[in-house]
């Protein structure tokens, strides 16, 4: 697995998941439950992980989606 993004911004994370889903790139968000347990104070960011072989395609998809707005 390859870490694509690390963030505490739930809206941004949701957008990333939607972009990747539209491109049919599987992803997993790690540390979501740990973040909730610690009180969501932002001490533990959530990580979006993709398979290593999908990492370059996932980055291109996110860049294109951000550019196209």
Question: Overview of this structure, please?
Answer:
- It is a single chain.
- With 69 residues, this protein is an alpha+beta fold.
- The protein is built from three helices and three strands; from the N terminus they run βαβαβα.
- Strands 1-3-2 form a three-stranded antiparallel beta sheet.
- The longest helix is centred in the C-terminal third of the chain and has 14 residues, at 55-68.
Report the uncertain regions: none
Give me the count of strands: 3
Beta-strand proportion: 15-25%
Element pattern in H and E: EHEHEH
Describe the global form.
Answer: globular
Which secondary structure elements does this structure contain, and how are they paired or packed?
Blueprint: E1 2-7, H1 10-22, E2 27-30, H2 32-37, E3 46-50, H3 55-68
Antiparallel strand pairs: 1-3, 2-3
Keywords, please?
69 residues; 3 strands; single chain; three-stranded antiparallel β-sheet; alpha+beta; globular
Write a compact overview of the structure shown:
The protein has 69 residues and is α+β, with helices and mostly antiparallel strands.
């Amino acid at each position: 697995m390859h870490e694509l993004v690390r963030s505490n911004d739930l809206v941004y994370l949701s957008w990333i998941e939607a972009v990747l889903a539209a491109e049919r790139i599987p992803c997993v968000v790690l540390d979501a439950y740990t973040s909730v347990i610690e009180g969501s104070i932002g001490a533990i960011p959530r990580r979006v992980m993709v398979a290593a072989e999908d990492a370059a395609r996932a980055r291109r998809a996110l860049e294109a989606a951000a550019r196209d707005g």
